[in-house]
Amino acid sequence: MGGRGFDEPMIRFDEVTYTYAGAPRPAVRELTLQLNPGEILAVLGANGSGKSTLACLVNGLLLPASGRVSVADMDTADESTMWDVRSQVGLVLQDPDDQIVGTVVEEDVAFGPENLGVESAEIRVRVDEVLAIVGLTGFERREPHLLSGGQKQRLAIAGALAMHPDYLVLDEPTAMLDSAGRESVLALIERLRAQGVGILFVTHHLADVIHADRAIVLDEGRVAFTGTPIELLGQEEVLASCGLEVPPLQRVESTLRAAGLPLPTGPLAVESIVEALCN
After folding, report:
1. pTM of the model
2. Cα separations in angstroms, 218 against 19, 159, 168
3. How do residues 65-80 score in pLDDT, each as one tens digit?
4. Is 75 helix (H, G, I), strand (E, B) or coil?
5. 69/223 Cα distance (integer angstroms)
6. Which of 5, 16, 239, 247 is disulfide-compatible with 67, CB 3.0–4.6 A?
7. Which CATH superfamily is domain 11-246 in?
8. Are strands 167-171 and 28-35 parallel, antiparallel or unpaired?
């Protein structure tokens, strides 16, 4: 599944602008970025900043008014390669009910591969494979409306993974979840990165992206910041202007570092901070 190698072609946005019909300004404007294989790129910003528009532009669900979006050198605006693009880029929407189409779990997961013309035997293998990855083995005959919110989100991810994409675009995948569901999805994202899948993770929760490789912040469709999540935590003006709040754990960590406490480098868990205080 996915992850053909870290030197494979990436997803690129080159000076991309998109405006919805009747809107007073572009949803995204002159946007330039790239996503590499096996990388988590977090996209943050307040509501209306252009995050979801960016997500829909990646696999050609929306097409730029100007500029170019390319996936492995394929232009998303080229109708002749549209299905190739969408087989390489899985898109998971914020509300999983918007893309669950099967009457039972295994039918929903099989829907994408069936539309690609994958043989039945291979579809069976893929369904079993991705349900194991997302922790839904044993739910094959369960009706989707009987699943919890976290299980539905994992089902939507499984449906995207069954296409064997090289990239996965997740639009606010933890927005509707409780803490247990959120941790489950974040752990899954980490596992997919380890398998070489490039992940574009759209969110407005800083706590969700502390382990991302890179982060960009959008403000009115433009890039207001690009760097690592740790670097972003130090940009108080950027965070405030874009309506983002530093997670409580990171606020404690920053306060302790400022007070001279020798903490390990990189993002910390509660246990690491407690251990440093006790020592």
Report:
1. 0.81
2. 15, 28, 19
3. 999 999 999 999 999 9
4. strand
5. 16
6. 16
7. P-loop containing nucleotide triphosphate hydrolases (3.40.50.300)
8. unpaired
